[in-house]
Amino acid sequence: MAAKTWERILGFALRAELPHYRYDDYCQWEGRWELIDGIPYAMAPAPSLRHQRLSLLLASLLEEALDECPHCQALQAVDWRIADDTVVQPDNLVICHQPAQAAYLSEPPVLIAEILSPSTARKDRGLKKRIYEAQSVRWYLLLDGETREALLYELEEGVYGPPHHIRHLRADLGPCTIDIDLDRLWRAKGIAA
After folding, report:
1. Which sign, positive or negative, has the C-alpha torsion 139, 175, 79, 100?
2. Residue 101 and residue 37 in contact, taking contact as beta carbons nearer than 8 Å
3. pLDDT tens-place string over residues 114-159
4. What's the pTM value of the predicted model, to 2 decimals?
5. Which residue of 76, 100, 107, 138 has the fewest C-beta atoms within 10 A of its own C-beta?
6. Range list of H helices, 70-125
């Protein structure tokens, strides 16, 4: 039997044996987790100082850019409950709707930013990118504090086009447009080399 066939059989068999968790289970766990298709993903260790600093600075720049927009708001890590068995916590996000729940988001953000770290880069570039694309998140920004690079994906006809290396974030959010000089992140105290 071909190797790919065995991989499919083994993957199916292993997945059938794994527990399938739901939002009620997720709410009982201590620490930071994400739940994707019923599978828990630990968010430990805590983000590095550079990661936290980038997230704080980006949140500040987003908030400043949205100052005149009464419809949109910048948020940091918050639960986004996509389905009963899928809950993610983007590092930074922008929503242009009033959340129906106080405990979590249930509608897609218009913009999500993930800050890459060695422990999350693979998931952020692969699994979470596919989730955000499937959920029609219009803008997906990846920030790499080590290389000081920013990659931006834009949803076009339901799929993300190729990423653009950017230094300036210009994004039409619907009710408003943001324009942010991302070089300000790389020059900031605690980030600059």
Report:
1. negative
2. no
3. 999 888 899 999 999 999 999 999 999 999 988 999 999 999 999 9
4. 0.88
5. 100
6. 121-125
